[in-house]
């Protein structure tokens, strides 16, 4: 009997939605914006894949899956930071109970940013981040800090369809 798979997401600027669409297509899964799915509908699925953008230490919309029981839960986050060099433990610990952390599989994907499309709050947050980085002595700046300053106030896109391969392989191996 085939498994029933749901891919649901919260996306403010589009990168998370794009990854969700790619994943749902590759897995022949149902796809819903998290704002358009009733929490009780989650129980109809064998596997739930939730995607949310990273904002100020939070995962957008993640309460849908943290406050409702999900049998096989997979979460992917989307942010600007390089997943190969970023420690996400503080974000995960802030958003998930220890019990849920232990039984959830996480993937971290890289999105993009177009400063012209940012809302006022996100513009202020990015300006604050720029100020924090600029106050660091240059010798203490990480490569990502330098990249942030070099691309500040422009449009950058790190979306990569191939990065969903690990998600697809994991789900197919369940």
Automatic annotation (TrEMBL):
Gene3D superfamilies: 3.40.50.360. GO terms for molecular function: FMN binding; menaquinone-dependent protoporphyrinogen oxidase activity. Residues 6-138 form the Flavodoxin domain. Pfam families: Flavodoxin_5. This is Flavodoxin. One of its GO terms (biological process) is heme biosynthetic process. It comes from the Bacteria. InterPro entries: Flavodoxin_dom (IPR026816), Flavoprotein-like_sf (IPR029039), Protoporphyrinogen_IX_DH (IPR052200). It comes from Anaerotignum propionicum DSM 1682. Coiled coil: none annotated.
């Amino acid at each position: 009997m085939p498994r029933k798979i749901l891919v649901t997401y919260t996306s403010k600027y589009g990168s998370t939605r794009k990854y969700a669409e790619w994943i749902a297509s590759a897995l022949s899964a149902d796809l819903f914006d998290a704002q358009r799915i009733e929490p009780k509908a989650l129980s109809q699925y064998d596997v739930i894949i939730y995607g949310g953008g990273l904002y100020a230490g939070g995962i957008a919309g993640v309460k849908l899956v943290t406050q409702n029981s999900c049998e096989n839960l997979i979460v992917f986050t989307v942010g600007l930071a390089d997943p190969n060099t970023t420690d996400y433990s503080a974000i995960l610990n802030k958003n998930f109970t220890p019990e849920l952390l232990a039984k959830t599989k996480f993937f971290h994907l890289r999105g993009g940013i177009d400063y012209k499309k940012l809302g006022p709050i996100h513009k202020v947050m990015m300006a604050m981040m720029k100020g924090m980085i600029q106050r660091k002595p240059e010798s203490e700046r990480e490569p990502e800090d330098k990249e942030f300053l070099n691309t500040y106030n422009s449009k950058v896109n790190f979306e990569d369809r191939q990065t969903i391969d690990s998600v697809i392989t994991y789900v197919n191996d369940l």
